[in-house]
């Protein structure tokens, strides 16, 4: 009996294996060519794709007429690519329904989604064109993938092409939308549209699957221009779709290895391969640029720092912007979530250590120090770990056993605002006084200190501007307030506080007198800061015509300046010292201004002869510099969020999601690059490995020409309790005030004034 069972199972397995080895049988329902040159070339598709499928191991035939009953009996998948291909009537429909009933698959391409009987055809492919309702728009389009977990679209990146979209199709709610596109539809009468180009208010399906009973169908709207069937991603989509509709276990069965992987990740019209991205960057002629890190090693880096060993640390934030918040619209439309519809899971943000193991200047090893963070935006190194902001909380993440993995988490503060996740705490920096400074957007919150000495204090309202807090969780306060969305901070080695805020029209600011001083004067309406770079024009390399990617606020100026670096690297020629750098990700550039003393504060100017250009600008839409910082080697490092979309909220009024980010189909959660910009005549700056227990190392680092190294030494001295007095932070005006306040007698104060 046992032998009989084993023999039967073996025979069954052989039968399954034999069935799997049988070629997939495909019939291409074609038709005559219609429309203009290069469009609706159904005969060429029939000829070329019959050959392609047969070359790939399928058994493909086809014709201009609908397949007969006998032909359908020898077919697993019908590909419909013909003008009004869904017009199937009479005996053809009866034969087709019999084919469908036995589990036959359907792939409908472009005109194959059109039928004069949409109510019936919807039950076949899940949706249909309806005459008198559905519309088309021919021209430049972006195809956005909305489900990359599906075997047909896995590994795909969004891309642009010239083709045609259909909108106001009738699509059943049971379909799974795999790709969509913006349409020309307006929001309402107050937000008129233009039927000749797409708008930003409406996203509709352009590709979907439909499964009912034991059959499968794929609908693919693009395909108006025949040349697009040679696009690597479209070819792979259709090959996979045919295999999937034919119920093959491996959707890549008809694909070749070279058509997968990076070919899909970096398609024509989509993101640029990291090794080719520098070719699209225009750089100041005195400098050179090199790639330090990129995907897949890193994903969506938002902040960077270096430890006393010279290693680069990064915060990776693939959860931006929505984190684990639930979508308030159809999940396929909302790309703000890294895993749409999956909210009961561990978050994916993390703090990582990057290392260049072979000395070629490119990071090739990553050690995740702390994971399972949600919407982490910035950090500072502290003792045996990091202090990280992940609103609503600030955490101290420690490694207590020396294995470079966080094993202890202490919440220092809570209550930070989270209404808008691009207006939260960001850009943490150490001040010379032992406080941690940060910029903060308009998502205000009432923050409670949770450390010893802080629990008894009332909550402090923290909003837009510069905030500071103590690393032990005992105290937090506003340092310099200004309405707007602040993103970028530099605490210089001589104690100045510079910061970036684009949304008010004043981009670069210097704190002259902090609020704790102004409060003592009780003079209402007095600003703590001086603004520079006001309403300055920007000069991008490219102009983006698509409404999804144009500047929408302060157009032609700084809409979203991000990052603040004042050069004290010690490596560049003298004229570059105290230069200010900031990115403008919405128009793909990095700006530079010389910073000059002006009394107790500063003024700025652009380089002579370069008033109408930028330090860096790119022709790559995806280049999004959101942070810049001077490293311990004296180079300027740029954090490139590398994303098709960089806009968060949209003042034009589209639907906004749970993190106050506009609902869009183009938010990426994978790509990310870090660039190194170095002067061609830079001095070589030694990046020391500092042993915090060795006085000689600390003394040497304290004398470095590089400000980052000097400030690292200061941090280590403070952590070792070797700095007993607070080093003042602030402008010359603040230092004068502190001296005045510290004077013991009226006579001493008069001497200071005189």
Q: Strands, helices and their partners?
A:
Elements: H1 2-21, E1 25-29, H2 42-55, E2 59-63, H3 69-73, E3 77-80, H4 90-101, E4 105-109, H5 118-125, E5 127-128, E6 135-145, E7 159-167, E8 170-171, E9 176-182, E10 203-212, E11 215-220, H6 232-245, H7 262-265, H8 274-277, E12 281-283, E13 287-294, E14 301-306, E15 312-316, E16 349-355, E17 365-373, E18 378-382, E19 385-390, E20 393-398, E21 408-414, E22 425-430, E23 436-440, E24 445-449, E25 460-462, E26 465-469, E27 476-481, E28 489-491, E29 497-500, E30 506-511, H9 515-521, E31 529-534, E32 562-566, E33 579-584, E34 589-598, E35 601-605, E36 616-618, E37 625-630, E38 636-640, E39 673-679, H10 695-702, H11 707-719, H12 732-742, H13 746-753
Helix pairs in contact: 10-11, 12-13
Explain this structure:
- By secondary structure, the protein is an alpha+beta fold.
- The chain folds into 2 domains: 20-265, Rossmann fold (3-Layer(aba) Sandwich); 274-679, TolB, C-terminal domain (Neuraminidase), CATH 2.120.10.
- 17% of the residues lie in helices and 30% in strands.
- A 9-stranded mixed β-sheet has the order 2-1-3-4-11-10-9-6-7, with helices on one face.
- The longest helix is centred in the first third of the chain and has 20 residues, at 2-21.
- 49% of the residues are buried.
- The model is unreliable at 1-19 (pLDDT under 50).
List the total number of helices: 13
Please list the strands of the largest sheet in the order they lie side by side: 2-1-3-4-11-10-9-6-7
Beta-strand proportion: 25-35%
Structural class: alpha+beta
Unreliable runs: 1-19
Shape field:
elongated
CATH architecture label of the largest domain = 6 Propeller
Distance between the termini: 111 Å
């Amino acid at each position: 009996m046992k032998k009989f069972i084993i023999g039967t199972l073996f025979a069954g397995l052989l039968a399954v294996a034999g069935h799997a080895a049988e070629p997939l049988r495909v019939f291409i329902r074609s038709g005559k060519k219609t429309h203009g040159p290069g469009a609706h070339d159904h005969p060429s598709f029939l000829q070329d794709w019959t050959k392609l499928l047969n070359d790939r191991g399928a058994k493909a035939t086809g014709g201009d007429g609908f397949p007969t009953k006998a032909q359908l009996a020898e077919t697993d998948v019908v590909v419909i690519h013909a003008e009004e291909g869904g017009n199937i009537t009479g005996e053809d429909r009866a034969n087709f329904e019999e084919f469908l009933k036995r589990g036959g698959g359907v792939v409908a391409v472009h005109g194959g989604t059109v039928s004069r009987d949409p109510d019936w055809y919807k039950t076949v492919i899940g949706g249909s064109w309806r005459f008198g309702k559905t519309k088309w728009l021919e021209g430049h389009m972006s195809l956005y993938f909305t489900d990359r977990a599906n075997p047909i679209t896995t590994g795909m990146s969004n891309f642009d092409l010239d083709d045609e979209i259909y909108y106001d199709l009738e699509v059943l709610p049971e379909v799974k939308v795999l790709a969509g596109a913006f349409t020309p539809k307006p929001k309402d009468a107050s937000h008129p549209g233009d039927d000749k180009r797409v708008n930003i208010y409406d996203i509709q399906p352009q590709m979907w699957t439909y499964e009912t009973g034991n059959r499968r169908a794929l609908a693919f709207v693009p395909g108006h221009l025949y040349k697009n069937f040679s696009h690597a991603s479209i070819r792979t989509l259709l090959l996979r779709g045919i295999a999937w509709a034919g119920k093959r276990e491996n959707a890549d069965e008809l694909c070749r290895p070279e058509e997968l992987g990076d070919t899909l990740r970096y398609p024509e019209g989509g993101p640029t391969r990291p090794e080719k991205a520098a070719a699209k960057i225009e750089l100041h002629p005195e400098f050179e640029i090199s790639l330090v890190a990129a995907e897949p090693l890193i994903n969506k880096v938002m902040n960077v720092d270096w430890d006393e060993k010279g290693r680069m640390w990064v915060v990776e934030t693939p959860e931006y912007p929505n984190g684990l918040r639930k979508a308030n619209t159809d999940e396929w439309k909302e790309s703000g979530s890294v895993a749409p519809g999956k909210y009961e899971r561990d978050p994916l943000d993390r703090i990582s250590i990057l290392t260049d193991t072979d000395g070629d200047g490119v990071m090739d090893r990553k050690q995740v120090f702390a994971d399972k963070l949600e919407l982490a935006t910035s950090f500072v190194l502290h003792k045996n770990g990091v202090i990280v902001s992940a609103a609503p909380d600030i955490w101290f993440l420690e490694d207590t056993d020396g294995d470079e993995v966080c094993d202890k988490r202490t919440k220092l503060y809570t209550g930070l605002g989270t209404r808008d996740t691009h207006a939260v705490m960001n850009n943490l920096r150490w001040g010379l006084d032992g406080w941690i400074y940060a910029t903060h957007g308009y998502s205000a919150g009432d923050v409670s200190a949770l450390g010893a000495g802080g629990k008894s204090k009332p909550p402090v309202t923290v909003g837009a501007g510069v905030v500071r807090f103590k690393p032990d969780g005992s105290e937090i306060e506003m340092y310099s307030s200004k309405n707007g969305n602040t993103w970028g901070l530099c605490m210089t080695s001589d104690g100045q506080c510079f910061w970036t805020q684009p949304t008010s029209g004043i981009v670069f600011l210097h704190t002259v007198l902090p609020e704790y001083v102004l409060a003592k004067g009780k003079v209402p309406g007095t600003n703590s800061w001086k603004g520079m770079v006001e309403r300055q024009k920007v000069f991008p390399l490219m102009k983006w015509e698509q409404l999804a990617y144009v500047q929408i606020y302060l157009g032609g100026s700084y809409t979203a300046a991000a990052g603040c670096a004042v050069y004290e690297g010690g490596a560049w020629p003298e004229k570059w010292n105290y230069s200010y750098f900031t990115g403008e990700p919405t128009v793909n550039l990095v700006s530079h201004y010389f910073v000059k003393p002006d009394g107790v504060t500063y003024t700025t100017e652009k380089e002579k002869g370069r008033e109408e250009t930028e330090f860096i600008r790119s022709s790559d839409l995806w280049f999004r510099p959101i942070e810049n910082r001077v490293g311990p080697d004296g180079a300027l490092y740029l954090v490139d969020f590398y994303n098709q979309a960089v806009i968060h909220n949209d003042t034009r009024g589209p639907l906004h999601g749970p993190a106050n980010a506009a609902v869009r189909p183009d938010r990426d959660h994978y790509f990310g690059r870090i660039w190194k910009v170095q002067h061609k005549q830079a001095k070589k700056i030694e990046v020391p490995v500092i042993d915090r227990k060795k006085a000689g190392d600390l003394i040497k680092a304290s004398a470095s020409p590089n400000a980052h190294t000097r400030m690292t030494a200061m941090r280590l001295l403070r952590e070792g309790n070797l700095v007993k007095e607070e080093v003042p932070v602030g402008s010359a005006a603040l230092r004068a005030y502190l001296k005045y306040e510290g004077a013991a007698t009226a006579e001493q104060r008069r001497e200071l004034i005189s």
